Amino acid sequence: MHDADEASRESGKPRLSGRIHILGLGNVGTFVAHSLASRPSPPPITLLMHNPELYRAWLAKKKCLAVNTNGLDDIKTGFDVNVLQDKTWHSIPYWNKDGSAENTSEGPGNDSQEVEAEESFAQMMEDDEKIECLIVAVKTPVTAMALESVSHRLTPDSTVLFLQNGLGVVDEINQKIFPDPLQRPHYMYGIISHGLARKDAFQVSHTGVGTTILGSVLSKDGGPPSKKDVDWVPSTKFLLRTLTLTPPLVAVAEEPSSLMLYQLEKLALNSVINPLTAIMDCQNGELLYNYSFTRVMRLLLMEISSVICALPELQGIPGIESRFSPERLRSLVTRLANQTAKNHSSMLQDVRAGKTTEIEYMNGYIVRRGEELGIKCVVNYTIKHLVLAKQQDSKQRESGAIPVDLLKESNS
């Protein structure tokens, strides 16, 4: 709480509560929440759950988050929860007013959990509390929908940190949810390179120590940062300070331009490995020993390199051409595919599961920025639509859909 007070005192604004809300409890959200709870004096943490079923699963897990390292589970409790029901957020605190922990049923079977769930729903209060610090760790395609549900709880003094793959989500958020620049919260990006694998709901395996790179969002026009970006609000200072002082995250703060370079590097690698493995239904390492793959890879990277080197927000930063040359990017892709040779990419997993992929925020982002700059990215455009076709194909098979061409013929 000391950090929150300090951040508020520096600005002369009302005192921060220091509470951090987390939206998205997949690998990254679970790891970050668990890491924050591992601090000697953790900040109050609220987990945002988008439906009552997720809360029932939370009860089944005894209200615990677990991170498994070297075969051992480290379990953390004490998290407050908000549950979205009928488009309204409801608060379910972990601690009772008398300071005791809320009941966590130990009985066998689901009956005791069901009873506890119903008791919790009966007691829960509507929660419209303003959110000071929000960490968003949902998949990129559902970010706008997920953020819409808490948008009324965010203010221009709030800070939203996006811990996600891909780029372009902030533009979408501004267009769909915060069209008025004066009403927007402050945005931060983060890149996590820790090795994380899902074991079960609310339980992840920490397979390799990496880093967390944090920074504010660079403006797209290439001009100097706006006053809003320079004058950090207390919530931004508090969130940055809290995360960088949370040992398991291995977090460092970077200038917006440095962070953008890391993001673009990761985007370039993801825009090759993810779609190609999704289209070919193969492990990452299989991309390395196929001549045709390497030809497509080279063409993709030539377009990606052209677009990145022409971005207006990067002009004037030294060393861009060499850092994002097709040759250097190709060596990075090869190294990453080697390191993760036996892995199935997240995009392949999404295609197999019939989920929406992050393709619009990877190759789709390159295509959109290319169009803005007058660069035609034909290969990226083709790859994007092959992934979309693959995605649609699995959904259409399930629903027994009529082919598009036959529909057109019957309408003509």
Structure description:
Helix 10 (about 290-310) packs across helix 12 (about 325-340) and helix 10 (about 290-310) crosses helix 14. About 45% of the residues lie in helices and about 15% in strands. The relative contact order is 0.10. It is an alpha/beta fold and about 400 residues long. The strands form two sheets. Strands 7-6-5-2-1-8-9-10-13-14 form a ten-stranded mixed β-sheet, sandwiched between helices. Strands 4-3-12-11 form a four-stranded mixed β-sheet. The protein has two domains: about 1-255, Rossmann fold (3-Layer(aba) Sandwich); about 260-395, N-(1-d-carboxylethyl)-l-norvaline Dehydrogenase, domain 2, CATH 1.10.1040.10. The protein is globular and about 65 Å long. The longest helix has 25 residues, at about 255-280. Strand 5 (about 80-85) and strand 6 (about 90) form a beta hairpin. The model has no long low-confidence stretch (mean pLDDT about 90). Belongs to the ketopantoate reductase family.
Quick recap:
By secondary structure, the protein is of the alpha/beta class.
Task: Tell me the layout of helices and strands.
Blueprint: H1 2-11, E1 20-23, H2 27-37, E2 45-49, H3 52-60, E3 65-69, E4 72-76, E5 80-85, E6 88-92, H4 111-123, E7 125-126, E8 133-136, H5 143-148, E9 159-163, H6 169-176, E10 186-192, E11 195-200, E12 203-208, E13 212-216, H7 227-230, H8 234-244, E14 251-253, H9 256-280, H10 291-310, H11 320-323, H12 326-339, H13 346-352, H14 363-373, H15 378-399, H16 404-411
Parallel strand pairs: 1-2, 1-8, 2-5, 3-12, 8-9, 9-10, 13-14
Antiparallel strand pairs: 3-4, 5-6, 6-7, 10-13, 11-12
Helix pairs in contact: 1-8, 3-4, 9-10, 9-12, 9-13, 9-15, 10-12, 10-14, 14-15
Protein name: 2-dehydropantoate 2-reductase
GO molecular function: 2-dehydropantoate 2-reductase activity; NADP binding
EC number: 1.1.1.169
